[in-house]
Amino acid sequence: MAEKPGTLYLCATPIGNLEDMTLRAIRILKEVNVIAAEDTRYTRQLLTHFDIHTPLISYHEHNKTTRGPELLARLEAGEDIAVVSDAGLPGISDPGADLVGLALTAGIQAVPLPGCNAALSALICSGLDSTMFTFVGFLPKTKKKRREFLEKLAKNPYTLLMYEAPHRLRQTLGELQEAFGDRPAVAARELTKRFEQFVRGTIGSLQEHFAIHMPRGEFTLVVAGSSSQPEEAGSDTVDSTSIPDAVFALVAQGLDKKNAIRTVAEQRKLPKRVVYQAVVEAEK
After folding, report:
1. Which residue among 78, 121, 184, 277 has its CA within the 20 to 30 Å range from the CA of 248?
2. Three-state SS at 84
3. 73 in helix, strand or coil?
4. Short-list 211, 208, 222, 218, CA closest to 255
5. Distance between CA atoms of 172 and 157, rounded to whole angstroms?
6. First-to-last CA distance in the chain?
7. How many structural domains does the chain have?
């Protein structure tokens, strides 16, 4: 190892709008010895735009086991390296996290260069609870593993954030409906780009929307956490006194009252009129 090892920089890049590139990120990308990029062709376009001429090297899911040790050796030799993903923060749903692990184990400093992130951008504009949340990333690829994974998440009380490709969106919404029932949800597409769009409602209403409108662009799904209350042992019904609170919680998360009542009725397997009457009584 050199007398002083290099530094590993985790550099956020724009998720669509190039104006979101930070001044610090531009400076560091110009100063480091090499940039490790998920897709060198895509990153080269970004560097050209900002007049950055630092050498590029590929580092991605399929070559990380061989390229990771190479990059670590360069860091130990005193070189500074910046890691970038195709868009957003490296280390979030990409192999940048593996390189950080290697560097830290070797006693090499890792420095974050904060910036864009699709999941957090979707969350803060979703209207759903952002106090506590669970980042899911991409769902497992096989149907069996997805079903098992979603079953584990069904009782998670925190807002869920997940990524999805357009050609799988309709299927995923159907699987979410099956695992979670209907609950507040938002589909954010093309974030920071010209055709940025937020479709807000419930999982069911999103299914209806995208059954008519072809999903286009990359999606971030924001889904409300479970708000159901545990039933008492041996009880066949849910305590009706908790029904208004469940409805009001959904309204607070951004759902209109009509859909909130429908959602709670479906979750509790009760007639909508029962839920509606409970809310009316509570409001009195």
Report:
1. 121
2. strand
3. helix
4. 222
5. 20
6. 73
7. 3
Q: What is the pLDDT of residues 42-96, one digit of tens each?
A: 999 999 999 999 999 999 999 999 999 999 999 999 999 999 999 999 988 888 9
Q: What is the CATH number of the domain that holds 102?
A: 3.40.1010.10
How far is residue 223's CA from residue 185's CA, in Å, rounded to a whole number?
A: 4
Spatial CA neighbour of 150 closest among 126, 128, 134: 134
- Report residue 56: phi and psi, to 5°: -110, 150
Cα gap 149→246, rounded to integer Å: 25
- The pLDDT tens digits of the residues spanning 125-145 come to 999 999 999 999 999 999 999
Name 183's Cβ contacts closer than 8 Å, sequence gap at least 6: 202, 203, 223, 224, 226, 227, 250, 263, 267
Q: Rounded CA gap, 196 and 191, in Å? A: 5
CATH number at residue 176: 3.30.950.10
Which of 116, 145, 162 is the last residue in one of the domains? 116
User: Distance (Å, rounded) from C-alpha 33 to C-alpha 18?
Assistant: 23
Q: What is the pTM of this model?
A: 0.78
Torsion sign across C-alpha atoms 253, 172, 212, 193: positive
